[in-house]
Amino acid sequence: MQKKYYLKKMNPTNINVKVLYNYLKQDFERQELFPQFVLKRNFKKERMEAVYLTDGQEKYGYAIYQELSAFKGIFISYLAILPKYRSNGLGGELISQLNDLSPNGMLLEVEDPEAAKGKKDYTTRLRRISFYERNGLHMNSNMKVNSFFVPLRMMDNLDKTDAYDISFYQRLYNRILGLPLGRIFIKENN
């Protein structure tokens, strides 16, 4: 019998946020993480949502996103499959479920392969981009950004690439951080 997966929203209690943050620390570099209090505040104010990919018994992966009223889609801040479940097609399942949640599209950032630190890092970045492309997203050639000193590229599955620009992206971070830091720390990287 094949398992049925679905997305389950996280109830943002202190313990649930702490558990999720431990997953984030395991799956992402320190410089890629918002402080735990920033995420907790955004969950409480319903600016961001966290969902788990589950079958009702196990958690297989998670995503943290915010809804974007500008194009009625979502901006995915974090997406990961838990290490013991990787390479089983669950990443594609998580993207598919998120796509069902947001039929108008999704936007996410990936580390720019051109800024990789060595061959292994370059290969890892290309593998991630390839994964997203296989799951219906494409690189926005107009959006190369430097976000808090990290060179990033934007990927989406939107019908039009002019749905967002650097000022839109800066406002996303201002909203998350609760401070107008986007203009300072989010720059176009040409």
UniProtKB/TrEMBL annotation:
Q: Which InterPro entries match?
A: Acyl_CoA_acyltransferase, GNAT_dom
List the CDD domains.
NAT_SF
**May I ask which residue range the UniProt record assigns to the signal sequence?**
none
Taxonomy, superkingdom: Bacteria
Q: Which residues form the N-acetyltransferase domain?
A: 5-159
| Name by which UniProt lists this protein | N-acetyltransferase
- Its source organism is Oceanobacillus neutriphilus
